[in-house]
Amino acid sequence: MGPRALRVFGVVLLFVILLLPSAARAQVVPGPCDTEVLPSGAQSYICVPVMGWNGQLVIYAHGYVAPGLPLGFYQLTTADGTFLPLLVQSLGYAFATTSYRQNGLVILEGVEDMRELVTAFNKAHPAPTRTHVAGVSEGGLVATLLAERSPDRFTSALALCGPIGNFRLQINYVGNFRVLFDYFFPGLIPGSPIDVPPSVIANWSTLYVPAITAALAANPGRAIELMRVAKAAYDPSDPATVINTTINVLWYNVVGTNDAVQKLGGNPFGNRLTWYFGSQNDLRLNLLVRRFTASPVALQAMRPYETNGDLAIPLVTLHTTADDVVPFGHELLYLPKVDLFDRGRFVPIPVNRYGHCNFTTNELLGSFLLATNLP
Q1: N or C: which end of the chain has fewer CB within 10 A?
Q2: Do both 88 and 161 map to the same domain?
Q3: Residue 216 and residue 218: Cα distance in Å, rounded?
């Protein structure tokens, strides 16, 4: 973060600390939230303060939801129990979100559903003077793509812990973790990293998570090798985070692989030419680890998921430095995409902490108010 951004961030945080509890929230009365169905079939959830609306709108893109779950409004509560629609309204903003038209891999569809959400809001309410987009995890990529591709509709964007640097590398990160897990802990998960049996998905929490947890606890040295070779984040001071990282990343492979293969028209993961290192015997590892080739159809289908760094509006990102699911390196990969003349519009904020989207409410507030107050 540059000196100018640091000054702005400091001013915004001071605003949060000094003014919000006594002034902004006291003058705002949050309104009820209405639900409708968008043209795509996605559900909308729109809330407008009945008093004190500042004329601005925040639309929220939620993160990944497992295929097969009912459509709904997910991830609306922070870790400390704060309800986002109420929090955003208490700051004077209208709030809107969508279920998306489906679950699972839904990034491109999510972009379209968010555009439909803005249109629906403008039809039902006075047009906002400014419209901001915020997204978390998968929704962080949705928000970034909207910032790049629809700057005429949005004033600012906030992307939290999203795979904004390189979508294909995110796919490969999850796939590589699975093939490496199968090497270090063979036979625990049936099927293939690119074809997961339905029985594994159905019994993941009850059968496979306990077995994996026990295997990791019984072989801590091998578990650390897995972390090292996979370049997966964990907290060295807390051995439990090794298990947490393993379960979290494997969940995305188990729950999301078949859905991604179907939607992309083939297997998107490839490690045919990957050389793994960091184990006790790298030669043995690379000779025995299972290899897969990505489908050309899937590789072509993933191209629209990639960001380009073309920013005409401010983009603020918040990312923990030890994110186990979406590596912090995405921030470093995104920065070179941004033109030198546009670098002032991109403000990445690192949070020195372990965990995926592991933020405090104050950190969320600070990054949000920074994004919405940047010129």
Answers
A1: C
A2: yes
A3: 5
173 and 195, same structural domain? yes
Structure tokens, 297: 């159809």
- The residue segments making up the domain with residue 310 are 3-166+306-373
Are 17 and 105 in a shared domain?
yes
**pLDDT at residue 341 greater than cutoff 50:** yes
Sheet strands side by side (includes 56-61): 33-37, 43-47, 94-98, 56-61, 130-136, 156-160, 315-322, 346-354
89 in Cβ contact with 36 (< 8 Å)? no
Among candidate residues 263, 281, 301, the one where a domain is terminated: 301
The answer to whether residues 131 and 114 touch, using CB atoms and an 8 Å cutoff, is: no
Count of domains forming the chain:
2
Q: Computed over its alpha carbons, how large is the radius of gyration of the chain?
A: 21
What's the DSSP call for residue 344?
G
In the prediction, which pLDDT does 26 show? Answer: 59
Q: For residues 192 and 270, what is the distance between their CA atoms, to the nearest angstrom?
A: 13
> Which CATH number belongs to the domain containing residue 81 in this structure?
3.40.50.1820
Question: CB 335: neighbour CB atoms within 10 A?
Answer: 14
Q: Which amino acid is at 318?
A: L
Q: Among 301, 316, 339, which residue terminates a domain?
A: 301
Which amino acid, one-letter code, is at 53? W
User: Half-sphere exposure of residue 223, counting CA atoms within 13 Å on the CB side?
Assistant: 21
- Residue 265 pLDDT > 90: yes
Q: Is residue 24 pLDDT above 60, yes or no?
A: no
Average pLDDT for the chain: 93
DSSP string, 124-186: HSPPPSEEEEEEETHHHHHHHHHHHH-TTT-SEEEEES---S-HHHHHHHHHHHHHHHHHHST
